[in-house]
Specification:
heterodimer, A: 292 residues, alpha/beta, eight-stranded parallel beta barrel, 10 helices, 17% strand, B: 402 residues, TIM Barrel, 16 helices
Chain lengths: 292, 402
């Protein structure tokens, strides 16, 4: 930017974090987080186009050509149903990375079926599964152990998420995530904004911006801070990219051109990233850049 | 001048010119724009208050001959989906507004050739007779011009008629971008040219009315034209001082003839902040949660806004173009406080009315805005029979009514 000297900041101390978290100065906080993000990723901003398919065996299976990750969503009814669905989707996947299920649902399923989580995960791996779709930190019975089990079973965790935003004080959660990553070291992306929110009392824009920015500052050992395009919408997601986030999840893989190419999902995400002064890079579920 | 020098000028309270405004808008980093806008906001509002109004946004008719190509709300004359609200329906809406602590209607509608000036005068008189202290923030400049053409009265005379009937203030709708090249491309130069829009406001201010000013950006305008719009508003405000507030929003493309894409969230925050900096003679700048959503609307408070607008209760125009956000008083108050400000209710003149109603008593939560009418309700108000229609369809309808 011409003629404006961006302030340079030193690494953030614990005391500063507490002050930043308590402050309403989201612009200063966002600048600090953006600086860390740019040191790590420059202007590179990745996004993935996701085709969601239901967990039920023989359920619908629509895989648009642009899909970068096929995600089997919802809780599986049984171990057998989970394995069967994974096999079906893998068989149809044309080599596209497949992610499936929430690790928290798999914990519950293992308990319900009186098997170890490890053996369930190994069954899924043997069926061809590559990625566990997400690990909701606040729903996991034992986050460290379950993530390690997935790793030992040969599965990659696609993302660590937060199910519900239960406390406005976000620092303890973020510090716990940092500690978790110190133990497991396999978390590639962390999506700090809650997956569910109250319709009558949703999180506010200030809260979301603070959470993304603080996540970038605190969770310094996870490569990517992620924001969900479909869940949070283009406007907030774009703003999140300027306050610490570097990866966009949940872009639709549907090639919907009914309202013109410019309104299609691909052009919309690229336009929003570029309008934030950043460089869009499409990736797949393995975090590999996609040509084009 | 460098961006740093322009920033210093803004921080020192200096007025920036067109070139400096363009440099800031195009080249200043978004955080800097926010910080500068916040400096200007804080200078004007040292008390840390953020205001809002409880009023209802009512569209009395959707029948319109203007045919702006960015509008998804209007229906042509004779359309089976066209409607005119009856006086009784409007009274009911006012009753509902008063019940949740509101004291005003924001009343705007299409340019319906079958509603003569007398209909508006009778409506306003009827409202004032029934609700003497209730305020009517009504009829944007293009509607005033439309009434001037229908009635063949000069604009100042139309305004005088409306004031005599009970008009309290004029909303700044229909401004879009006040550059005629843009207005021609949007097919809205016929409803009002830039000069005509500004002239209505000039006459209204001279007649003692306060008004708001708006800007709808993100269609075909250049950066220079967006700033020219702001500078024209600033010049009129220097002349009359009649604007109470400025509100900007992005073009909502869904279901419109023009189509295209919506401007991004960052574009909104940059535009809002630039407006706050350029419009140094406007006291109040509103955040537009109705087009941007509550989250980005609230973020607007960090980018120069000092007002969260209205609880609205009802909304039809933006919804028709695909956006359907809702914020009731509880949500507006919660968002203001979460941003570190103190929420206060206001009237259209931005006079503080008090603390939130929802803190004084239980107010039913509202998770969805109402619409003008329930779907499928096509009834024609009886009182329309009293007013001569101009269109062929309107004349036929009157005959049937008689």
């Amino acid at each position: 930017m011409s003629g404006w000297s961006r302030p340079r900041h030193m690494p953030v101390t614990n005391a500063e974090l507490t002050t930043l978290a308590a402050s309403h100065d989201i612009i200063n906080l966002g600048m600090r987080a953006d600086e860390v993000r740019r040191r790590r990723h420059g202007t590179r901003t990745t996004f993935v186009r996701v085709a969601s398919v239901p967990a039920e065996p023989r359920g619908p299976l629509v895989l648009p050509s642009a899909t970068g990750e096929i995600r089997i969503g919802g809780a599986p009814a049984s171990r057998q149903a989970a394995v069967e669905r994974v096999r079906e989707v893998i068989a149809a996947s044309r080599g596209i990375p497949v992610s499936a299920f929430s690790l928290a649902d798999l914990e519950l399923l293992a308990t319900r079926e009186s098997v170890t989580l490890r053996s369930l995960l190994e069954d899924l791996r043997a069926a061809g599964l590559e990625l566990v779709a997400d690990a909701p930190y606040d729903l996991l019975h034992d986050p460290r152990r379950s993530i390690e089990e997935a790793n030992i079973a040969g599965l990659t965790l696609a993302r660590l998420t937060v199910h519900r935003s239960s406390s406005p004080d976000t620092l303890p959660l973020l510090k716990a995530v940092t500690e978790l990553q110190r133990s497991v070291a396999v978390i590639r992306a962390f999506a700090p904004l809650a997956r569910t929110t109250s319709p009558s009392m949703p999180t506010t824009g200030y809260e979301d911006v603070k959470r993304v920015a603080l996540a970038r500052l605190v969770v310094d050992n996870v490569p990517s801070i992620q924001v969900d395009w479909a869940l949070y919408g283009p406007k907030l997601a774009q703003i999140a990219l300027t306050v610490g986030a570097d990866d966009v999840d949940g872009v639709s893989a549907e090639d919907d051109m009914t309202e013109g190419r410019r309104r299609g999902p691909l052009e919309e995400i690229r336009r929003n990233i570029r309008a934030a002064g950043l460089e869009p890079v499409e990736r797949n579920g393995r975090f590999e850049a996609v040509a084009g | 001048m460098t961006i740093d020098q322009i920033a210093d000028k803004v921080k020192g309270g200096g007025r920036i010119d067109a070139g400096e405004a363009l440099d800031l808008f195009r080249h200043a980093p978004t955080p800097l724009l926010g910080q500068l806008a916040d400096v200007v906001r804080a200078r004007k509002h040292r008390d840390g208050l953020v205001t809002y109004i409880i009023d209802r946004n009512v569209n009395y008719t959707n029948v319109c001959v203007a045919r702006c190509n960015f509008c998804a709300f209007y229906r042509r004359v004779g359309s089976p989906e066209g409607y005119v609200l009856g006086f009784d329906e409007l009274f009911r809406k006012i009753d509902e507004t008063i019940a949740v602590g509101g004291g005003q209607l924001l009343l705007q509608g299409g340019h319906n050739p079958d509603l003569p000036l007398a209909w508006y005068e009778d409506l306003f008189r009827a409202v004032k007779a029934r609700y003497p202290s209730f305020k009517l923030h009504a009829l944007s400049p293009p509607e005033v011009i439309h009434l001037s053409r229908l009635s063949q009265l000069a604009v100042p005379d139309v305004i005088d008629h409306l004031i005599a009937a009970g008009l309290d203030s004029i909303p700044g709708g229909g401004a879009e971008i006040l550059v005629d090249r843009v207005r021609r491309l949007l097919h809205c130069d016929g409803k009002a040219t830039s000069d005509e829009w500004l002239d209505v406001m000039r006459h209204a201010h001279r007649a003692g009315l306060r008004t708001t000013a708006t800007m709808m950006y993100g269609t075909v305008e250049t950066d220079e034209e967006r700033l020219e719009h702001l500078l024209r508003l600033r010049a009129l405000q220097d002349e009359t001082g009649g604007f109470t507030a400025f509100i900007t929003w992005s073009y909502q493309p869904a279901h419109t003839e023009r189509g295209g894409v919506e401007a991004t969230g960052l574009d909104y925050l940059r535009t809002l902040a630039t407006a706050r900096i350029v419009l140094d003679n406007f006291d109040n700048v509103q955040a537009s949660w109705v087009t941007q959503g509550g989250k980005v609307g609230q973020l607007g408070l960090a980018f120069g806004a000092n007002d969260m607008g209205s609880v609205m209760i009802e909304e039809n125009v933006v919804r028709a173009a695909g956006a359907s956000y809702c914020m009731d008083e509880v949500e507006i108050v919660r968002n203001i406080e979460a941003a570190g400000f103190v929420p206060k209710r206001r009237n259209m003149h931005y006079e503080i009315l008090g603390d939130p109603i929802c803190r004084e008593r239980d107010v039913p939560r509202m998770l969805e805005l109402a619409t003008s009418r329930d779907e499928g309700d096509t009834h024609v108000p009886d009182e329309l029979a009293k007013y001569p229609a101009r269109s062929r369809g309107g004349k036929q309808l009157r005959l049937i009514q008689h």
